[in-house]
Amino acid sequence: MMNISRSLALISLFILPLLSFSFSVDNPTDRRVLVLLDDLSLKSSHSIFFNNLKSRGFDLDFKLAEDSKLALQRYGQYLYDGLIIFAPSTERLGGSLDSKSIADFVDSGRDLILSADTSASDLIRGIATECGVDFDEDSSAMVIDHSSFSVSDVDGDHTLVAADDLVKSDVILGKTKIEAPVLFRGVAHSLNPNNNLVLKVLSASPSAYSANPSSKLSSPPQLTGSAISLVSVMQARNNARVVISGSLQLFSDRLFRSGVQKAGSPNKYEKSGNQQFVTELSKWVFHERGHLKAGSLVHHRVGETDEPAIYRIKDDLEFSVEIFEWSGKSWEPYVADDVQVQFYMMSPYVLKTLSTDKKGLFHTSFKVPDVYGVFQFKVEYEKLGYTTLSLSKQIPVRPYRHNEYERFIPTAYPYYGACFTTMAGFFVFSFVYLYHK
Amino acid sequence: MAAPESQNLATPSALRNAFGSVLSVLILVLIGVLAFSIRLFSVIKYESVIHEFDPYFNYRVTQFLSKNGIYEFWNWFDDRTWYPLGRVIGGTVYPGLTLTAGTIWWVVNSLNIPLSVETVCVFTAPVFSAFASWATYLLTKEVKGSGAGLAAAALLAMVPSYISRSVAGSYDNEAVAIFALIFTFYLYIKTLNTGSLFYATLNALAYFYMVCSWGGYTFIINLIPMHVLMCIVTGRYSPRLYIAYAPFVVLGTLLAALVPVVGFNAVLTSEHFASFLVFIIIHVVALVYYIKGNLSPKMFKVAVTLVVSIGLVVCFIVVAVLVALVASSPTKGWSGRSLSLLDPTYASKYIPIIASVSEHQPPTWPSYFMDINVLAFLVPAGIVACFSPLSDASSFVILYIVMSVYFSGVMVRLMLVFAPAACIMSGIALSQAFDVFTGSIKYQLGGSSKSKDDAEDNTSTNNAPKDDASTGKTDKVEEIAKERSSKKGKKKEREPAEKPSIRSKIAKKKALVLPLEASIVALLLLIMLGAFYVIHCVWAAAEAYSAPSIVLTSQNRDGLHVFDDFRESYAWLSHNTDVDDKVASWWDYGYQTTAMANRTVIVDNNTWNNTHIATVGTAMSSPEKAAWEIFNSLDVKYVLVVFGGLIGYPSDDINKFLWMVRIGGGEFSHIKEADYLRDGQYRIDSEATPTMLNCLMYKLSYYRFVETDGKGYDRVRRTEIGKKNFKLTHFDEVFTSHHWMVRIYKLKPQKNRIRGRVKKLKSKTSSGSFTKTEKKNPWI
């Protein structure tokens, strides 16, 4: 399979991949990335971002979005592990690509960076909607913030927003804190609060709103305040990751390099936070960070090593599971104190936090509840930024066998006594009655 | 009969008796062959398969038993049914049938006859129906002599009601339970007639076998006390009655408590209380008789007042205790099935799950004619015959038929208990009638020869030989053990009274001799009646009751059509799904799915958990999304529905659907039956309510149905369906059998992504390329 995909890659790519791994469980980091641009000049204007990716070992395949030879897959095999769409104005994608095939691409567990911009096309909005992100319907609207704009915004319409409301997650944005505000110029989008798969990474300040800067506001803007998301991520149920940004400039060399001073703030930064923000985010989206892998669930009775086919009620058992985290190069033991196991039959009968030996092994022991039925060991681990772990293993629990009950119950000794004295009494009585004259 | 005849072979009449007994043995063998072979139509017309629903479970249990042995069977926790609750099979099943078939299989195999478990299971019922007819012979012989016994046995061998439950392949509890029932009654009567403690013990053992086999054992434990009470009230108390009853209750209850499924119910539920009450009463009565025998009449009067007053107090206390016990138990001590026996409307009012089973419905009048045919006319004659003269045994048979008529009127399933009683009564009636007619013919043809008449009297008149026999016996035994005179004592007392009565009867008979022509015509008519019965029975066995219901056939102009959809789809399930996948269906198909497809089911025909069944019923009556959530929470992978609309198979899920709604609504109040009915009518055409048209059952049944004929014409409901073109959002059709009888759907996996605001997007995008179809997700 690897050879086929490699030869296919040879045919279709003009950059020869040195070592092309398909996205796999063993090596979750993406390798081959297709970049769709609506203008090849973006290649140079966003060169820092692209070069950074290349230096991290990605094979970038730049194509025009309208290129008629575009194809994501051939003979049922995906040619790419990741997709970057920097083509906000494209109305139609070339080749066989459309929004459905991009949604399929995500549903196959592959990753996507999508950037819209002012006057984003319906196509881009459609892809975003597929991922649960709703851009402002007014196509000419931009995010305007009269209190936290960047002072370098010379136009005076305060559309260059200096945002510093970042999600607090080391997994998504790296351990180093992003000090400088992130410069953003583009459209706002909102998320459905009931959608637990999407997450605001960069939110607007409470004073922001979304409107057309060149026209007067006739009615209150629909999107206001921190309901506006500037950059969002989506992690699908199959752990495919998507970054959706409302601004293409966010990734540009110009904003990477420009200094920033937030209006009303004395702090002036030499460099905006954009580069760090985008780099860390791209590490997350391409699974260089926050990707967990769990080994199989192991359970057995205390004092035994083999996994039984069935437990008895009130058995003592030991349970363990191995969890590793992908560091970008290798699997490292995952260390956390909040992994829990459920012993589940329609509802969790046992819920225990697993303790770890810091080598990736999480274990605990507990007593099977006094209920028989078909149980499941369930590990449902959903932590912000990490891939979702959802493991379950079915195990039946049986009641006592007929000979596993206590033979003689202490409280019943009077009854045993009564029984035997009656028998003895009857015998004596019969004897006396029959042979006594 | 054999015993007395062998005693004195010398006399010519005894020789005739010996000949008669050889003949009756031969006839009994033939009756056994008849009972066995009339039940083989199903094997000849179809094939040697297990029938229907419950037999599949019994078959599966038997397989387990034969593979793992009795201890594993006793402790079997089955994790493939009632997911995720599981079921403790060993403790919730009546093991009699399974153990019987398992033993037969083991014996046959240790004799190096390589029969498969399935073959043994298929033929268990016919074999036991032969046993049952022999038991009927024994029982009726105890009541009215061997002539009636043979007639009753022959009738029972082919009574359609019994055939319906015991054709080859119908491997259900009733197959062995009817034999056990009749045999227990026989042993009771035998004990009553002989007063032998040996038979009393055997009686308790037979009762134990009955308890092992069928929940219908409560009929015995209530009928026998009732008879005892009747005997006491009518002044027929005798030590024989005591011996027949007291050991039976004590031993029987102890043995019944040994059966895991009964356990403490044998002393805790009110179905059994009648026997304990009568047990007390019979002791009080026995005490009274004892005291009466020891005291002078004057003293006795004093004692009576004393005993009566004490007895009243004791009775009052006991009744109070019983009432308290009954009142403290949640269902007032009665299980739902038993309550519906007492109040026929109880089940339909309160327990939809009991009412939903067709065999728990009251029967219709035609079903009596169908199931017992001419016996219905003979039964009254038999009852009359039982009253002349009334003995302990015949009073028992009368009580038996009265009770079983009532119960069969409540629940069609209990027709099965009624059938043996009807056969016994009809056998008595037939034999008496033949006696009268042949007797008069003989007399008219110059039968002045008295010896002939006497001999004839001896063989065919019912009481005479028995009396002769017991007298002979009595004379012999009397001297050895005067004290142990139970039956003998009674016989001795009665002898002077009865002998003359028989003499007078013979004299009366001679006086009541019918004219020759009338006798011959009546005989011919009786024979014709019998012939009609035989023809009807053979027809019923061949046509009405042989269908295995997993294979259906239909005859039309083109010839025979076979619908083997059930096995086709179970085979599909077993070959195309993972071994741990859960299949949800209405509970009727649970046993078959576990037995034939070997897949885990959510509910099955053992309807012990109402909530769980109601959950499935609710899912079936909910709209797709809610149903998907319910099924997903139960880890269901596949949903199986049975649909008869294409070929006109009437017992499909749409016809059962209202029960799902009722049972679901009984537990979850948001399901209301009225939402599924248009003006109180259940319909699926364009007039149907939106709730009905959107529920899962409708959608799964009629999905793509319009593609078959373009109109969507349902041949069962004889109408076009209401909603024809629709898509499924949460289920994928994965299998539809050849005649669309079984349709299997797979639950779609949860969506990989949650989409944004769909409506606004739709109004904006013209491309429309975003369909709602679920994308393939290789990770789930």
From TrEMBL, chain A:
<protein>
    <recommendedName>
        <fullName>Dolichyl-diphosphooligosaccharide--protein glycosyltransferase 48 kDa subunit</fullName>
    </recommendedName>
</protein>
<dbReference type="InterPro" id="IPR005013">
    <property type="entry name" value="DDOST_48_kDa_subunit"/>
</dbReference>
<keyword id="KW-1133">Transmembrane helix</keyword>
<feature type="domain" description="OST48 middle">
    <location>
        <begin position="299"/>
        <end position="437"/>
    </location>
</feature>
<dbReference type="GO" id="GO:0018279">
    <property type="term" value="P:protein N-linked glycosylation via asparagine"/>
</dbReference>
<keyword id="KW-0256">Endoplasmic reticulum</keyword>
<comment type="function">
    <text>Subunit of the oligosaccharyl transferase (OST) complex that catalyzes the initial transfer of a defined glycan (Glc(3)Man(9)GlcNAc(2) in eukaryotes) from the lipid carrier dolichol-pyrophosphate to an asparagine residue within an Asn-X-Ser/Thr consensus motif in nascent polypeptide chains, the first step in protein N-glycosylation. N-glycosylation occurs cotranslationally and the complex associates with the Sec61 complex at the channel-forming translocon complex that mediates protein translocation across the endoplasmic reticulum (ER).</text>
</comment>
<keyword id="KW-0732">Signal</keyword>
<comment type="similarity">
    <text>Belongs to the DDOST 48 kDa subunit family.</text>
</comment>
<dbReference type="InterPro" id="IPR055457">
    <property type="entry name" value="OST48_N"/>
</dbReference>
<keyword id="KW-0472">Membrane</keyword>
<feature type="signal peptide">
    <location>
        <begin position="1"/>
        <end position="24"/>
    </location>
</feature>
<dbReference type="InterPro" id="IPR055459">
    <property type="entry name" value="OST48_MD"/>
</dbReference>
<keyword id="KW-0812">Transmembrane</keyword>
<feature type="domain" description="OST48 N-terminal">
    <location>
        <begin position="32"/>
        <end position="285"/>
    </location>
</feature>
<comment type="pathway">
    <text>Protein modification; protein glycosylation.</text>
</comment>
<dbReference type="Pfam" id="PF23358">
    <property type="entry name" value="OST48_MD"/>
</dbReference>
<dbReference type="Pfam" id="PF03345">
    <property type="entry name" value="OST48_N"/>
</dbReference>
<feature type="transmembrane region" description="Helical">
    <location>
        <begin position="413"/>
        <end position="435"/>
    </location>
</feature>
<dbReference type="GO" id="GO:0008250">
    <property type="term" value="C:oligosaccharyltransferase complex"/>
</dbReference>
<comment type="subunit">
    <text>Component of the oligosaccharyltransferase (OST) complex.</text>
</comment>
UniProtKB/TrEMBL annotation, chain B:
<keyword id="KW-0812">Transmembrane</keyword>
<protein>
    <recommendedName>
        <fullName>dolichyl-diphosphooligosaccharide--protein glycotransferase</fullName>
        <ecNumber>2.4.99.18</ecNumber>
    </recommendedName>
</protein>
<feature type="transmembrane region" description="Helical">
    <location>
        <begin position="397"/>
        <end position="418"/>
    </location>
</feature>
<keyword id="KW-0472">Membrane</keyword>
<keyword id="KW-0325">Glycoprotein</keyword>
<dbReference type="GO" id="GO:0004579">
    <property type="term" value="F:dolichyl-diphosphooligosaccharide-protein glycotransferase activity"/>
</dbReference>
<feature type="transmembrane region" description="Helical">
    <location>
        <begin position="273"/>
        <end position="291"/>
    </location>
</feature>
<comment type="similarity">
    <text>Belongs to the STT3 family.</text>
</comment>
<keyword id="KW-0256">Endoplasmic reticulum</keyword>
<dbReference type="InterPro" id="IPR048307">
    <property type="entry name" value="STT3_N"/>
</dbReference>
<keyword id="KW-0328">Glycosyltransferase</keyword>
<feature type="domain" description="STT3/PglB/AglB core">
    <location>
        <begin position="580"/>
        <end position="639"/>
    </location>
</feature>
<keyword id="KW-1133">Transmembrane helix</keyword>
<keyword id="KW-0460">Magnesium</keyword>
<dbReference type="InterPro" id="IPR003674">
    <property type="entry name" value="Oligo_trans_STT3"/>
</dbReference>
<feature type="transmembrane region" description="Helical">
    <location>
        <begin position="175"/>
        <end position="200"/>
    </location>
</feature>
<feature type="compositionally biased region" description="Basic and acidic residues">
    <location>
        <begin position="465"/>
        <end position="501"/>
    </location>
</feature>
<keyword id="KW-0808">Transferase</keyword>
<comment type="subunit">
    <text>Component of the oligosaccharyltransferase (OST) complex.</text>
</comment>
<keyword id="KW-0479">Metal-binding</keyword>
<feature type="domain" description="Oligosaccharyl transferase STT3 N-terminal">
    <location>
        <begin position="22"/>
        <end position="425"/>
    </location>
</feature>
<dbReference type="GO" id="GO:0005789">
    <property type="term" value="C:endoplasmic reticulum membrane"/>
</dbReference>
